[in-house]
Each structure stands twice: as C-alpha cells, then as structure tokens.
Design brief:
Blueprint: H1 2-20, E1 27-29, E2 44-47, E3 50-58, H2 63-78, E4 87-94, H3 97-102, H4 104-111, E5 117-122, E6 133-140
Parallel strand pairs: 4-5
Antiparallel strand pairs: 1-2, 2-3, 3-6, 4-6
C-alpha cells in the first residue's frame, strides 16, 4: 500500500511539473505596427515550424477578390519565410459555395498545382457582416537540421 502511495506522489509531482512548464514560443505577425486586440486574434502565429494564418476575407466572390485573399495570405506567410507551397491545410468558409465553385480556377492558379488538404463550408454569415469569403491556412516550414 505504501508503494502505491509513493507512486501516486511521484506521478502527481510529474503532472504538477508538466503543468507549470507548459509554455510554447509563439512568433506573431500583424499587418499593423502592433496587434489589433479589438477582435482578439493574431493575423498569423508561428510555433516551431508550423504557421497558422487567421481567416482572410473578401466582400465578394470574383476571380480578382479571390486572388487578393491569397495574396494577403502570401504576405502573412512571407513574414516567416513561407509561400503558398508550404500550405498543407486550407479551410474556406463562404456564404455562396456555388460562386466559389464557379471561380475556383483563381484559387487553383495561386497554388500552382500544389494543392493542400482543403475543407470548404457554406455558412450563413461571417464575422464581418458584409464578407462573403474567409480563408485560413496552416503551413509547414522544413524542419531545421
């Protein structure tokens, strides 16, 4: 019984140590000089070799607006030395999936044939009331040797 109690204390100590040392290094990118905290998000966050880019929006769904969204995403990725070819996952939210399907060539051109895993979802509304498209991506940089 005593050995079980000692084992419990050891495990509890390991758990407590792990909880107190639970920090990660996050590098953030913002288009402005500092983070806009009104909505409470970062434009892009890099942890280790993974980059998470927040949703980037368009108010309409045309080839030109789709291209602008991906160019904005490229700017976020470039802040960490990445390109769209580093994107491994894309989540696309739209209020008009049929328009997105119609203009998908604009999206495909931006990836130059190197398409990521992707999820497309039609929703009734985005955070910005007049937005019709929002795209977020996850990119990986090569691991350092």
């Amino acid at each position: 019984m005593r050995s079980v109690f000692i084992m419990f204390l050891l495990l509890a100590g390991i758990t407590a140590t792990a909880q107190t040392n639970n920090t990660i290094e996050k590098k953030k990118f913002h288009f402005g000089a500092k983070q806009d905290t009104s909505a409470g998000y970062a434009q892009a966050v890099k942890v280790d070799n993974v980059i998470y880019v927040s949703g980037t929006v368009a108010r309409d769904i045309t080839p030109a607006s789709i291209k602008r969204v991906y160019q904005t995403i490229e700017r976020s990725l470039a802040a960490f030395g990445a390109t769209l070819q580093n994107v491994v996952k894309e989540n696309l939210y739209t209020t008009d999936i049929e328009a997105m399907k119609t203009h998908n060539e604009a999206r495909k051109e931006m990836y130059k044939g190197d398409y990521p895993a992707a999820t497309w979802v039609q929703i009734s509304r985005l955070y910005m009331p007049d937005a019709k498209l929002e795209i977020e991506v996850i990119a990986h940089l090569p691991k350092k040797q």
